UniProtKB/TrEMBL annotation:
<feature type="binding site">
    <location>
        <position position="54"/>
    </location>
    <ligand>
        <name>GTP</name>
    </ligand>
</feature>
<feature type="binding site">
    <location>
        <position position="112"/>
    </location>
    <ligand>
        <name>GTP</name>
    </ligand>
</feature>
<feature type="binding site">
    <location>
        <position position="56"/>
    </location>
    <ligand>
        <name>GTP</name>
    </ligand>
</feature>
<dbReference type="InterPro" id="IPR006687">
    <property type="entry name" value="Small_GTPase_SAR1"/>
</dbReference>
<feature type="binding site">
    <location>
        <position position="58"/>
    </location>
    <ligand>
        <name>GTP</name>
    </ligand>
</feature>
<feature type="binding site">
    <location>
        <position position="59"/>
    </location>
    <ligand>
        <name>GTP</name>
    </ligand>
</feature>
<dbReference type="GO" id="GO:0005525">
    <property type="term" value="F:GTP binding"/>
</dbReference>
<feature type="binding site">
    <location>
        <position position="155"/>
    </location>
    <ligand>
        <name>GTP</name>
    </ligand>
</feature>
<dbReference type="InterPro" id="IPR027417">
    <property type="entry name" value="P-loop_NTPase"/>
</dbReference>
<feature type="binding site">
    <location>
        <position position="109"/>
    </location>
    <ligand>
        <name>GTP</name>
    </ligand>
</feature>
<keyword id="KW-0547">Nucleotide-binding</keyword>
<keyword id="KW-0653">Protein transport</keyword>
<dbReference type="InterPro" id="IPR006689">
    <property type="entry name" value="Small_GTPase_ARF/SAR"/>
</dbReference>
<feature type="binding site">
    <location>
        <position position="53"/>
    </location>
    <ligand>
        <name>Mg(2+)</name>
    </ligand>
</feature>
<comment type="similarity">
    <text>Belongs to the small GTPase superfamily. SAR1 family.</text>
</comment>
<dbReference type="GO" id="GO:0006886">
    <property type="term" value="P:intracellular protein transport"/>
</dbReference>
<protein>
    <recommendedName>
        <fullName>GTP-binding protein SAR1A</fullName>
    </recommendedName>
</protein>
Length: 173
């Protein structure tokens, strides 16, 4: 099947990271589940996942950012002490010419933990207040505006990220 084919290709590609293979398989299965449930599995796109350590992803995958179709930036909404560091990294990505037209989905993870940042608080600390494009179906084809939006989620509780990926899917051909 196409799923098994993709799984084999992904496993082959990440063989070099032997100590993280279990985590990568978890990430692949999690990501496949999201794509399949949102009807995105059949779309062809390169999505670059970036974020700081302990943001809720199992590993930070270092991939080439050339020719990617989208960026998902994961932020630990509970680790407020690292918001400044996360902002610097995000600012560097947003100013990278190779990513100038690429849509950015910012996921604020760990909202299931008491005292995690709210969406407004995360937007403020990342410098995104009044810079996001809106969560609905937003037509940006005729403008030079890069799609960028913040969604809060709990990967552990399997909530919130689906809306983010649905939003992102409208910008992937």
């Amino acid at each position: 099947s196409r799923y098994e084919e993709g799984q084999k290709i992904l496993l082959f590609r990440f063989r070099e990271i032997s100590e993280e293979e279990d985590e990568i398989m978890f990430l692949f299965d999690w990501f496949y589940g999201i794509l399949a449930s949102l009807g995105l599995w059949q779309k062809e796109a390169k999505i670059l996942f970036l974020g700081l350590d302990n943001a809720g992803k199992t590993t930070l995958l270092h991939m080439l950012k050339d020719e990617v179709d989208a960026v998902v930036y994961l932020v630990d909404a509970y680790d407020k002490e690292r918001f400044a560091e996360s902002k610097r990294e995000l600012d560097a990505l947003l100013s990278d010419e190779a990513l100038a037209t690429v849509p950015f989905l910012i996921l604020g993870n760990k909202i299931d933990i008491p005292y995690a940042a709210s969406e407004d608080e995360l937007r403020y600390h990342l410098g995104l207040t009044n810079f996001t494009t809106g969560k609905g179906k937003v037509t940006l084809a005729d403008s030079a505006v890069r799609p960028l939006e913040v969604f809060m989620c709990s990967i552990v509780r399997k909530m919130g990220y689906g809306e983010g990926f649905k939003w992102l899917s409208q910008y992937i051909n």
